[in-house]
Amino acid sequence: MTVYLILLAVISLIGIRLNNSGDNRYLDKEHSTSLKGIFVAIILLSHFNQYITIEQNMFNYPYLLFFERIGQLMVTPFLFFSGYGVMLSIDKKKGYLDSFLKNRVLKTLIQFDLAVALYYLMNLAMGIHYDVNPLLVLIGWDSVGNSNWYIFVLLCLYVITYLVFTILKDRKRLFQLSVLTIVSLAFIIILAQVKSDYWYDTIPAYVLGVWYYCYKDSINRVLNKYYLVVLLLSALLTAGLNILGYKGYRVTNVINSAVFCILLLAVTFKLEINNRMIGTLGNYVFEVYILQRIPYTVFGALNLNTHVYFLLSVLVLAVMAYLFRKLSRQLTNVIIC
After folding, report:
1. 251 pLDDT exceeds 70?
2. Residue 242 and residue 252: Cα distance in Å, rounded?
3. Domains in the chain: how many in total?
């Protein structure tokens, strides 16, 4: 399986170039989409690992070690850019919050539920049964084989953001950000009482994205002046916190979700990613995330060769993602028009 990581690394390097401008280019949509494409591919592999047994040998060791160490950090870029993007829209688009619940929260929830309906159909056809409350499945609290925690957490963070910036619309930005941070911390504490670590340990990445947008110019000045210090310090902290998290210190994983984002941003501050293939994948984050377990489940019942199983699943997923986006967006617009 290591060959897939090598292939991803090689493809990701295509089109990469040095960026010495010192501006906000590393935060623009084209660049962030390419970065997300890399991590979507990593998530594809990570979830596939749950459906197969990987032989522990010298060839698979780098692959197994990579996924053992990266853990939930692979999700942090998506939450960071979600927070960053929401804050950018609040700042730049007049009246954005007025339609936020409808256009951001409700649309995401409807598209998620349309995907959940496909899982119900698959389970019916394959005789798979989950003893869960359907209403809780529809909001992402429970699952019928689909990935769910990310959608639930993201929708909650959207609602928290909406409430904070609506209720406190006349307060200073620093106060708004502070309240958002405190409420998000409370959300983490609540989730920690009832859910596993992976439900909450990446939430700081979203909050960091909101803060980062507001202070990006100041942060860029720091990066321009102390680039190597930020790069090395964030790398050392990421490694150290990762080791502590692996040893069972759960709070370090929460902190590391933000530190790892800083490391990624420091790297991409100087290395511009501009890859059309990876960027295309990054444009289908939601569809890939929510649909990938369907082909994994269906083809997993056929006892295929591991490589045939994975490649066939990816091929079918690509078609599903394309069709689902077209149909789900049309249906969503009809439902909430």
Report:
1. yes
2. 7
3. 1
Query: What range does the domain containing 294 cover?
Result: 2-336
CB 275, CB 283: distance < 8 Å? no
Rounded Cα distance between 43 and 289, Å, is 8
**Shortest CA distance to 259 belongs to which of 12, 80, 26, 10?**
80
- CA separation for the pair 209, 35 (Å, rounded): 15
Q: Which helix (H) or strand (E) holds 17?
A: strand 17-18
Q: How close are the terminal C-alpha atoms of the chain, in Å?
A: 46
In Å, how far from its chain's centre is CA 117?
A: 22
For residue 22, the model assigns a pLDDT of 66
In this structure, what DSSP letter does residue 129 have? -
Rounded CA separation 336/328 (Å)? 12
**Residue 303 dihedral angles phi and psi, to the nearest 5°:** 55, 50
Q: For tokens 């809780």, what's the residue?
A: 136
Dihedral of the alpha carbons of 282, 275, 47, 126, in degrees to the nearest 10:
70
Q: What percentage of the chain reaches a pLDDT higher than 90?
A: 69
Asked if residues 158 and 192 have their Cβ atoms less than 8 Å apart, the reply is no
CA distance 290 to 268: 27
Q: Are 111 and 332 in contact (CB under 8 A)?
A: yes
* Cα 45 to Cα 39: distance, rounded to the nearest angstrom: 10
Residue that is written with structure tokens 């084989």 in the block: 145
Looking at residue 36, its pLDDT comes to: 92
The reported pLDDT for the residue numbered 152 is 96
Ordered DSSP codes for 255-288: HHHHHHHHHHHHHHHHEE---HHHHHHHTTHHHH
Per-residue burial over 228-238, b = 16 or more CB atoms within 10 Å of its CB, e = otherwise = eebbeebbebb
- How far is the C-alpha of 17 from the C-alpha of 29, rounded, in Å? 17
